[in-house]
Amino acid sequence: MKKETRILVCYNSPVSIFPVYNGKPGENSQQGIDLSEYSFVSQINQIVEMLSTKFQVVESFAVNRDITLLINKLNSFQPDAVVNFVESVEGITNYEYCVAALFELLGFEFTGNTAVTLGNCLNKLRTKSILKSYGIKTPEAITVEPDETLSKNKIKLKFPLIMKLEEEDASIGISEYSVVNNFNQLKKHFDFLKKTYNKRVIIEEYIVGRELNVAILDGKILPISEIDFTGLPENLPKIVTYDGKWIENSTYYNHTKPVCPAKLSSRIKTRIEKVALEAYRVMNCRDYARVDIRLSKENIPYVIEVNPNPDVSSDSGFARAAAARGIDYTSLLETITNLALNRKRNDSLNQAI
Question: Which in 150, 157, 180, 261 has the greatest CB count within 10 A?
């Protein structure tokens, strides 16, 4: 009798650990539903159902800080592959790579990127150092500890600048106030960030130009997406903010719409794809990732971030890029899962030789 394939979908339930997520003072926040609180987790049952049409036994498990529960589940269920959708543990993003490391230590094959890649990409300055060592363009930047005092002498960067939390993703802490044009604006927003988040801040030269997202599946480029800022008020910087991703009916949400495929000349498209694939490779990504790029007015692509294990919910940019390639959502999930299963089969064959 054919052995059944057992798949365990691991994910994290959203937990709020910051008083403010959208990077601006409460009095300047807009009213609206925060979709980040339940957007992906609400789809887990749908994902399990879809995968159940392709594999014999599929279950889900919510990961929290009680790692003994996860270890017991893994040992009792004995999955052939873990579908790793864990992006944080009880709201702490730094623990994302720790969960992948646990899968590695216990010998369970899992989807997406390794613990080392997840840890390197989460640290934005480390990512930049790796990219620059391979000659890949990325904006100049520095990091500042929350207990540091900012001085003009320390900021040897060209304004305008953009400020981000150094080890957070999902655009947490990014708002229209993140782009600053002078030292006074910089200091004011830094004071807000350190008081609100108490996290290291990365200060980066802001590239005026187009915002592009390059989804990569199994080392192959999917159609490129561009963020369309049409309709965004002129006084607001053309960036992807927390509001734009998660706060329904906010100004940024309504006027930062993805267009896929992006309208690019073949020459520029080839250049962007080459840079994105190089970034994917030098960061040792596997299975799937998204490379975010700013295309300057001179048509020079700068890698802003490399996102391993990006959001692949049904309404995500990654799923949209896959659909533009003719890959429906069920097939996308199946493809990602099979990449892990194939690694396990190959390892078994190598051990048998």
Answer: 180
Task: Count Cβ atoms below 10 Å from residue 194 Cβ, excluding itself.
Answer: 18
pLDDT tens sequence across 159-214:
999 999 988 877 888 999 999 999 999 999 999 999 999 999 999 999 999 999 99
Residue 207 · residue 296 · CB < 8 Å: yes
Assign 3-class secondary structure to the chain: CCCCCEEEEEECCCCCCCCCCCCCCHHHCCCCCEHHHCCCHHHHHHHHHHHHCCCCEEEEEECCCCHHHHHHHHHHHCCCEEEEECCCECCEHHHHHHHHHHHHHHCCCECCCCHHHHHHHHCHHHHHHHHHHCCCCCCCEEEECCCCCCCCCCCCCCCCEEEEECCCCCCCCCCHHHEECCHHHHHHHHHHHHHHHCCCEEEEECCCEEEEEEEEECCEECCCEEEECCCCCCCCCCCCCHHHHHECCCHHHHCCEEECCCCCCHHHHHHHHHHHHHHHHHCCCCCEEEEEEEEECCCCEEEEEEEECCCCCCCCHHHHHHHHCCCCHHHHHHHHHHHHHHHHHHHHHHHHC
Do 291 and 280 contact (CB within 8 A), yes or no? yes
Q: Please tell me the distance from the alpha carbon of residue 84 to that of residue 319, in angstroms, as a whole number.
A: 16
For tokens 């840079």, name the residue: 275
Tell the residue number behind the tokens 């790796």, with chain if given.
Answer: 130
The Cα 99–Cα 105 span in angstroms is 10
What tokens were used for 185? 């604006």
Angstrom distance (rounded) from CA 201 to CA 145: 7
Query: How does pLDDT run across 264-305, given as a tens digit for each residue?
Result: 999 999 999 999 999 999 999 999 999 999 999 999 999 999
CA atoms within 13 Å, Cβ hemisphere of 308: 29
